[in-house]
Amino acid sequence: MKTRRIFILCALLLSIATSAFAATTILAGGCFWCMESDFEKLDGVTDVVSGFTGGELKNPIYNGNHTGHYEAVEITYDPQQVSYRQLLDYYWVQIDPFDDGGQFCDRGHSYKAAVFVANDKERVIAEESKKAVQALFAEQNIVTPILPASTFWPISGAESYHQDYYKNNPVRYKFYRWNCGRDQRLKEVWGEKATH
């Protein structure tokens, strides 16, 4: 009985310690279904939520007004397993960093890619990461901006079906992703570095 209590206590302490080390970041990379799918595969990521950020409008909605906002994901991760820099290195190969009009088949402001930084430390890391990508493509201009983080509005209510869309609608999701040309373009830009 004593051993069982010790085991439960250790499990509880481990759970508390793990959540104490959790960090979040917000990234936009076009379709949030795809970003959610791609980042949930990354070791150290514990949660990915689809939503909107970057605009001034409160309570933006997908099938309505989300003017000025980016489709984005809020990523919760364990910095002891994956660093912020590693998250960004993974991010770049999920997007087309040369496209200033959206991402892949999705066009318009809300589908643009962007890195949202919460503080000066993140900004320094993000700028370094962007410079490293730019060095790989000396002949092209990386247009993905690094912006200050603002309120993240998770998709909710009647539009909650967007959360985990790739899990709940795998056939439709794969059909969309293929027809949008996302993976084909990522392979064209990043070659073997492309992950999906």
CA gyration radius, whole angstroms: 18 Å
* Side-by-side strand order of the widest sheet: 7-6-1-3-2-8
Would you tell me the structural class of the helices and strands? Answer: alpha+beta
Q: Characterize the main sheet.
A: 6 strands, mixed
Shape: globular
Uncertain stretches of 5 or more adjacent residues: 9-19
Assess the beta-strand content as a share of residues. 15-25%
* Distance from first to last alpha carbon: 47 Å
Helical residue percent band: 25-40%
The sequence of SSEs as H and E is: HEHEEHEEEHEEHHH
Count of separate DSSP helical elements: 7
Mean pLDDT metric: 90
Total strand segments? 8
Structure report:
The structure is a single chain. The chain is 39% helix and 19% strand. It is built from seven helices and eight strands; from the N terminus they run αβαββαβββαββααα. The chain has helices at residues 2-20, 32-39, 84-92, 120-136, 165-168, 170-180, 182-190; strands spanning 23-29, 45-53, 70-77, 102-103, 106-107, 113-117, 146-148, 153-154. The chain is globular and about 45 Å long. The longest helix is centred in the first third of the chain and has 19 residues, at 2-20. The chain has 196 residues and is α+β, with helices and mostly antiparallel strands.
